[in-house]
Amino acid sequence: MLYDSKDPLDHIKYFNPHHLELTGVDPFDTNQNYPESLEYAITDWALDKICRLPGPLYIILINHGGTDKFYLTGSNDWLEAYDLNAWLTQLENDIQQHTNDPLPDIIIIIDTCYSGSFMNDLIKPESTRIVITSTADNELSFRGPKLPSNDLLVRDGAFFVSNLFNELGKGVDLSQSFERAVMRTEILSGNQTIICTHPFFDHAAQHPFLDDNGIYPGHNQLYTYADGYRAKEITLGYERNSKERPEIVQTIIQPDRLLSANENTLDISVRVKNPVDDLNVFIEIKTPNDNLPITVNEQLQKELDLTQINLDYVSEGLYRITCDKFHTPGKYTLFFYVQNTDNTVYYSNQCYVFKSKENNSPPAPFQLIFPINLDDPENQGSTETELLQVIFQWEDTCDSERNQFSYTLWLSKNSQFDTDDLIKQEDILDSQYLVELPDNWDGNDIFWKVQAIDEFGASAETQVYRFKLDDKNNPSEMPIVYFQVYDLQTRLPVPEAKIWFGHENNSNSMLTSKRGRLIQKLDLSDTIDLTITANTYKAAYTKINADNTPIISLSIPLVSNVQTGDINRDETIDIGDVIYALQILSGLPSSDSYDAKAALIGDNVGLVDIIYVLRLMSGTIQE
To answer: What is the pTM of this model?
Structure first.
């Protein structure tokens, strides 16, 4: 994608093993080692290019890595985050000395395990840097699909960056390209065995980050006027006369995306825009059993051996296959790919298929809360309108069989939800969600509904609400604050915590959701004192300072006041706790009737807790 044999200006410097002779790859200078060569490329080669022809600089690093390290070879040659920052700082200073032009945008993209650890070194306030990493500081990076190449299957080594450049190659801006690559990466790395804990509170094993406002640590999710705002102005140029790339524009699954317990076959068809001869269209299927083992190794990337199936050519632009791989009840994710005759692979969006489980019940019914329904007789005559940034809220629901479930938010300009610009946001785990609606929706009536779908496809759906957008006539916008309350020890969300705006005896308070989250628009013209309380936790106190930042994220840890050994939660450790623990072990009370934090080890009451309480009572040990 980056190489153009007709480009005489040598705008790209490649680094690859020196024994490989590849088109577009610079020969390795044996007079320098790898770190010296990379330093020269940044501090001298790039300086010369920028001074002669100003423009953005892209630095793309893809390989194995560790904390604050990028491996240049398989031996002891590596790049330290500290050194990369020093070279960039030297480059920035030299540009200012040699030219009168403003500093160009410098986009650093790192796809390696633990690449998020580079953020604290590379983020620089009031700079022109845009830093993108494929993972958080403590995560491994996922590899992509096995791609056919010269009668071999070669695995894509960097799923996130491949998706990022897949979007950039379409002319999509850097911000939106990042968001789409993040979505696919988190879906691929999703693992239902991962517990939703601080700081992401989702099931993904990999979380890319972007910073373009110089404020550490960057963001995994982008919002207007926060991280991602500058990246919206960045696009990767491409040749105007180049042919339009093949692209999947429609996916058809029959008879339905929900299979019964006795079905295991689907007809899958795709329509491809701009098809060429000998195009290879294929899918990879992530089954309910395709969860990665949690392993830790400094250079070990994660990979999934997913089932890969080639679709058959039917007619120009149409490909189809009958697939019988849906045997296990649960949620399947289908990833779609198009491979051109030059072996270039284009990534497309994924879709979900569910296989039912016999006698499975759907999540419990629930209702929408906000925005209010203008079609409700109680709200007739209401002039209430919403801005383009809308906080949607609905009731928490539950699943009687404790199946995992997620929400799907539907938004449309008609009540049938069949418009071409329909917005369908899947995989929402909380009962609140912020959406930035398109500018061309302003002034319209908007219809919305929410589905709760469990892992076997059983669903509950709300009624449809209608609200009106009027952003143009409401120019003032209050900052949006994300509150996330969590247990400091377990890092789990604290449900139904009460956030008091002011002091605890003030009546102005709101509850967090079951996942410990609250999204709220607040007037921050002055500092707001906060008190956070929750059952079995000590109160926490903090404040939000007056700020013009449109999006504020505030994570609030709470400390438990539950004593180890107080199994029955009567604030006294005595023989009653021993009796209650014996009842638990015998299966008498439900698992929700005691506080897991009272357990000595983990979150399950066992024989060790009975021994602990008896020893406390006898004075053998002290609390």
So the answer is: 0.84
